């Protein structure tokens, strides 16, 4: 889909295609539709990031809390969004050994207990070993730093989903 | 559920129960969890309203765009959220006569074309005749006024969903 096609989408089409570039936050996609036309895909990405950055800290935490645990209950139950399922599977998180799975579950709980939001990482830019290492390390951070770090990861996930949709899948969803 | 029970919910439980008090905007529920403890239900409602009011105008439009059309495609296809389905059904919008249905469809399109967001009204505080009359009348408003009016309706819907969950259904969802 080229940028001209994107710019003439109705808000319903736009949200239908791009509504989950930020996990379970279609409000963000729906909001930036107000900013069209976009000169290119980077401009759309920038509008999303700007919207996120303008949110109060509670709103940024709200975004993080809309994310599932990595290798968590939603993966086991099959209730992940399609995007998350694919991302977690590519990183090998759907095939953890029993000891690894227990360790991840324990660290996820520790992280959530400490910060009040889940560990968010761009799974597609990391492999399993790197994800497990960072989960362990980031549990030691300060809360404000970790909130900012989580939001950075949200933006990376968003970018990959956005480019993926525009460059490959979107025509099929139209 | 009393307020003390509400205040000790984890963010996951909180979002699971209250995530759709603003239609398809779990980020709002997830954000206000940061503001607990709440002295009472009004304080929770106020925190939600405050979050909404602090959004940029594009964000308020984003909330409206997350709402389905009244008596629209989602109702016909069975893809409404449970909350919307019940609200639309109570107002009789699931049993329109053919001429009424055509008129509503035409006015919904006219409204969306004019404003770039859907007509939002608290169906539980109106009957079918009143909804159809207001849909027709509100098509004539100015955009800014109509955006503000839509957000007022979002808050009424939110209040009724919130009180409904706390006073009746929530224990079953826990």
Question: Can you describe this structure?
Answer:
The structure is a homodimer of 174-residue chains. Chain A is mainly α and 174 residues long. The first copy, chain A, has a domain at 68-150: Oxo-4-hydroxy-4-carboxy-5-ureidoimidazoline decarboxylase (UraD-like, Orthogonal Bundle). Chain A contains 10 helices and no strands. Chain A has helices at 3-7, 11-18, 26-32, 41-54, 57-65, 73-77, 82-90, 98-115, 128-138, 143-173. The first copy, chain A, is globular, with a radius of gyration of 17 Å. The first copy, chain A, starts with a helix and ends with a helix. Chains A, B: This is 2-oxo-4-hydroxy-4-carboxy-5-ureidoimidazoline decarboxylase. Chains A, B: Pathway: Purine metabolism; urate degradation; (S)-allantoin from urate: step 3/3.
**The CATH topology of the domain at 68-150 in chain A is what?**
UraD-like
What is the correct CATH architecture of the domain at 68-150 in chain A? Orthogonal Bundle
* Residue windows where pLDDT falls under 50 for at least 5 positions of chain A: none
* Tally of contiguous helical segments of chain A: 10
- CA-atom Rg of chain A in angstroms: 17 Å
How many distinct beta strands of chain A?
A: 0
- Tell me, rounded to a whole number, the average pLDDT of chain A: 94
N→C terminal distance of chain A:
10 Å
Helix-strand topology string of chain A: HHHHHHHHHH
EC number (chains A, B): 4.1.1.97
Subcellular location (chains A, B): Peroxisome
Pfam families (chains A, B): OHCU_decarbox
Catalytic activity (chains A, B): 5-hydroxy-2-oxo-4-ureido-2,5-dihydro-1H-imidazole-5-carboxylate + H(+) = (S)-allantoin + CO2
């Amino acid at each position: 889909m080229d940028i001209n096609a994107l710019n003439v989408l109705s808000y319903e089409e736009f949200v239908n295609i791009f509504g989950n570039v930020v996990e379970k936050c279609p409000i963000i996609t729906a909001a930036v539709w107000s900013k069209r036309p976009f000169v290119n895909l980077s401009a759309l990405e920038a509008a999303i990031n700007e919207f996120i950055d303008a949110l109060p800290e509670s709103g940024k935490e709200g975004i993080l809390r809309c994310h599932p645990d990595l290798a968590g209950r939603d993966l086991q139950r099959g209730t992940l969004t399609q995007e998350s399922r694919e991302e977690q599977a590519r990183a090998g998180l759907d095939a953890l050994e029993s000891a690894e799975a227990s360790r991840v579950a324990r660290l996820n709980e520790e992280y959530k207990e400490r910060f009040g939001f889940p560990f968010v990482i761009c799974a597609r830019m990391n492999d399993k070993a790197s994800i497990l290492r960072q989960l362990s390390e980031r549990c030691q951070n300060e809360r404000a730093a970790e909130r900012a770090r989580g939001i950075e990861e949200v933006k990376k996930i968003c970018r990959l989903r956005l480019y993926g949709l525009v460059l490959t899948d979107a025509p099929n969803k139209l």
